[in-house]
Amino acid sequence: MLPVQILSDSAQEERDETARLSTFVGAIAIGDLVKSTLGPKGMDKILLSGDAERQNVEVTNDGATILKSVGVDNPAAKVLVDISMTQDAEVGDGTTSVAVFAAELLREAERMVAMKIHPQVIIGGYRKALLMAQEALRKHAKASTGLVLTAFGSNI
């Protein structure tokens, strides 16, 4: 049986620390790209698409729109874009926040890896933090009865 070539001739291979760093950098760049659109003083981004003769210009501060328009080839960056798209499909909002939050978790993970903390230890810590956050939310949750009536009864 003959070997099958899966990758293109121009494909590059990265190993060990170089691969890990490029993964971190790509994902963090996605978070940084949309971070400035957050909040009441969030800034708009100008998106250009099309060729030189017929350019389409769009001004937006919507994280989902920005991330949909960015071509991404970094696997970790693609995961962040997918997280944002899933957030948009499931909830309809929070696309920028989820991308920025995930990027910041990766930024901290990169810092800990540089301190020679094993990635499995970092993942274990993040899992413990998740459980603690869920418990804190359950502990402080309040019933939301009557909330819908209030929202529908207000002047919009």
Quick summary of this structure?
Its main location: cytoplasm. Helices cover 59% and strands 8% of the residues. It is mainly alpha-helical and 156 residues long.
Descriptive notes:
- The protein is mostly helical.
- The protein has a domain at 16-114: GROEL, domain 1.
- It has 6 helices and 2 strands.
- It has a two-stranded antiparallel sheet.
- A hairpin with a 4-residue loop joins strand 1 (45-50) and strand 2 (55-60).
- Helix 1 (16-35) packs parallel to helix 3 and helix 3 runs antiparallel to helix 4.
- It is globular and about 65 Å long.
- The relative contact order is 0.11.
- The mean pLDDT is 83.
Contiguous helical run count: 6
Strand order, main sheet: write it out: 1-2
Give a short account of the largest sheet: 2 strands, antiparallel
What is the strand content?
A: 5-15%
Strand tally, please?
A: 2
Shape summary: globular
Indicate the percent of residues in helices.
55-70%
Assigned CATH superfamily of the domain at 16-114: GroEL-like equatorial domain
Summed over residues and divided by their number, the pLDDT gives a mean of 83
CATH topology value of the domain at 16-114: GROEL, domain 1
The CATH class name of the domain at 16-114 reads Mainly Alpha
Task: Spell out the helices and strands N to C.
Answer: HEEHHHHH
Rg = 20 Å
Keywords: ATP-binding, Chaperone, Cytoplasm, Nucleotide-binding
Organism: Anisakis simplex
Subunit structure: Heterooligomeric complex of about 850 to 900 kDa that forms two stacked rings, 12 to 16 nm in diameter.
Protein name: T-complex protein 1 subunit beta
